[in-house]
Amino acid sequence: MTLTQWRVLGEKEVGGVWAAVAEHPPAETIERTHIDSNTTLGLWLSSQPNGSQGRFLSAQWSGGHARMGRIVVVPGNVPLHVKASATPARRMLHCRLPAHVSLPRPHEAGVFEQCLNWSSPVIARSLSRLAREVMAPGFADVAMIEGLGLQIAAELAKGFAKPGSGHKGGLAPWQLRRIDDYILSGHWDCSVSELAALCGISAGHVMRAFRQSSALSLATHIAVLRMERARELLEDESHAVAEVAAHLRFATPSSFCAAFRRATGETPRAYRHRIRRNASQHGE
Questions:
Q1: pTM of the model
Q2: Residue 97 needs a FRET pair 20 to 30 A away by CA distance; which of 34, 38, 147, 229 works?
Q3: What are phi and psi of 263, to 5 degrees?
Q4: How many domains does the chain have?
Q5: What spatial distance separates the first Cα and last Cα of the chain, rounded to whole Å?
Q6: Which residue range is the domain that position 280 belongs to?
Q7: In Å, how far are 24, 95, 149, 153 from 126, measured between CA atoms?
């Protein structure tokens, strides 16, 4: 895959699984069509919400452009037209699944709609881990990257085979997107009642429906998003650890460090050192 105008920060290809973390400069307007013979995914890594809109050029897509979420899935050989305006600089993970992985082509509009804002905790965690392995490879990065790609493919196959199964009895895509947008805008210590009000349902209902949609509790989901944002901020050494802790609304820097170590197995300082060492090895 060619990333024109993108500044590639890290790239790796193992066993047909290709992944790259890249940055794109600000743009007044964006209008392009993406197509690949293999299924591809994008994970939005920037702090601001994804403001792009997309439309699959397929007979199963009858509507106009729809808002794209944090995770976008583009099935193989299905063109996706993307447009946006006043787009700030942004960072994304791009992933292409192996050609030998056979995924069924979606045949229902509901699945295509889901592809623009795919909601799966397993895929979200796998893509986030993939981004970390690309930027700061571990001891088993080769096996890890290939394994993550195959796990993502397996989860997508379930979603393609059972259209809408992830939302039956759960939250609608717009409700899931609204919850994520609210949390990622800085409301890290939000209450269940706040999220329920955003969705127009009761607190008890939002807790049950969110778990049905994602297999995670709201609290766990918030914790995952919070730690992912912590990693992003720590990669920018202009932010002191105390500033990162305050941004994520931890009571003290020490409480943030303890939470980060429980979640990742290393301190914020050790994480930064590993990122810096990996960047120097790549000549950045």
A1: 0.67
A2: 229
A3: -80, -30
A4: 2
A5: 22
A6: 167-284
A7: 23, 11, 8, 11
